[in-house]
Design goal:
Length: 117
């Protein structure tokens, strides 16, 4: 048996002190997951190599469930998505992270985040 590790992320605007939520990042006329999901899936399959299970990855990154993308961090070079244990593969893969460069998601970002690219 082994323990379970969880992650919970929160992002704040340092200027205002307000929490930044997912909807603050993306233009409302777009479904950001239509662009994000294929990138994340591809990156995970490459990163995990022989340990990649396409069905597990597809279920854990489904665009039908925003909960799959609940742990994210805004970074200088992009948006980092952190997946929980067992979300996209077995315990042995840990908690995979995928970084989305701003350039790849620029078309769906709201103006305050366009300057981060």
């Amino acid at each position: 048996a082994h323990g379970i590790t969880n992650v919970f992320t929160r992002t704040f605007n340092l200027g205002t002190g307000k929490e930044v939520i997912w909807d603050d990042l993306f233009q409302c006329e777009h479904n950001p997951l239509e662009i994000i999901c294929p990138i994340v899936r591809s990156d995970l399959k490459i990163m995990l190599g022989k340990m990649a299970d396409a069905k597990w990855i597809d279920e854990g990154t489904s665009e039908k469930n925003l909960e799959n993308y609940k742990n994210w961090v805004v970074e200088k070079k992009g948006l980092r998505i952190i997946f929980s244990q067992y979300q996209v593969g077995p315990y042995a893969i840990g908690m995979p992270e995928v970084s989305l460069p701003w350039e790849k998601i620029n078309s769906i970002l709201k103006p305050p985040f366009l300057i981060l690219k």
